[in-house]
Amino acid sequence: MNRQREWTDRFRIFLNNKFVLFLLVLLLIGLNVLVFSKVPHIFEPLRVLAKTVLLPIILTGIVYYLTNPLVDYLERRKIKRAYSILALYLAIICVVTLIVVAVVPLIRDQVQGLIDNIPYYSAQIQVQFEDLIGSEIFNQIQQTLGLDTTALMNDLSNRATDLLKNAWSGIGGFIGALTEVVLAIITVPFILFYLLKDGKKLPHFILGFVPTKLRGQSFRVMVEMHRQISSYIRGQIIVSFCIGALLFIGYLIIGLNYSLVLAIIAACTSIVPYLGPAIAITPALIVASVTSPIMLLKMIVVWTVVQLIEGKFISPQIMGKTMHIHPITIIFVILTAGNLFGIVGIILAVPGYAVLKVIATHLFRYFKTRSGLYEEERTVSANE
Q1: Each residue of 106-124: pLDDT tens digit?
Q2: How far apart are alpha carbons 349 and 270 in whole angstroms?
Q3: Which backbone phi and psi does 286 adopt, to 5 degrees?
Q4: Which of 18, 116, 225, 382 is least enclosed, having the fewest CB within 10 Å?
Q5: DSSP string, 314-381
Q6: pLDDT tens-digit map of 337-367
Q7: Residues 214, 98: contact at Cβ < 8 Å?
Q8: 29 near 22, Cβ under 8 Å?
Q9: Is 210 exposed, middle or buried (0-12, 13-18, 19+ CB in 10 A)?
């Protein structure tokens, strides 16, 4: 009888252990996920719903974080919020109209000229590549490394053919994706209006579903997530705009062809940290190298100066240290998200990681406080 009571007490102590209880909760969650994953049609409506609303929500969120400070400023100046939003919409309409009238024709002409000159650029690159293959330095490198140029050219030709076939077969998917993007852009102004008008009520609405004892901690988590996302979106877009403007001015100074298009490409790709500038420099390198070796040297100088200005002055002033993420971590996060979710994952990798980091940090703090596993043992002095 005593032995049975002893085992009962041990089992009760085992169940009362907070760490064991935490592991049991994780096990139950994992079992639920495993069971529901075996019945995929249950999650199909949720998947379709998420796919439908995800893009409009993302686009609206980006525009919200860019425009909300202006609406708050006008509201602090004793202007009603609804009137501030209407004034903001009128300003956006005027800016978009100005861009469509003044900038779009110039971009269209440069893009059309770039497309028309693609055969010329391809021929020039082929000539330069053939000159490089025939040079003595390349022959020495080929002999040293044992390269087979014929096999290399055949492989590149086959890859180019496969790429064209895949691009042609993916036209239908591209049209479908373009349709989704257009519909998402159309819905953004309507969602944005209500988000700007009633966005401050959203955290309190969400907290209504949270247990009372956890509302304070949950509110702090939402505030930190809001700060991380807003600082990243505003900062990264401003930095990208500055990079595009500086490159456009630099390209105009050195006389590089298609300067506006190349600067816009650089500004758009610079939204992705670290990897974006490496992608953006490729079309500028091609245009400059085909133009002349001197132009290539000038373009590299302009690019280097812009990157130095961005790294030493613009980013530290605008971005600061709000993200607290190491550059190596950012690169790994972007590569992983790109392999998992494609281009959308690359764009959302850093803010998504920042949000997950905030949630994981607060969960660990909560577990550390409640479990008692991280309390330092009190040292007993010799006098006690």
Answers
A1: 777 777 777 776 676 666 6
A2: 14
A3: -65, -50
A4: 382
A5: IHHHHTTTSS---HHHHHHHHHHHHHHHTHHHHHHHHHHHHHHHHHHHHHHHHHHHHH-TTPPPPPPP
A6: 878 877 777 778 888 888 888 888 888 887 7
A7: no
A8: no
A9: middle
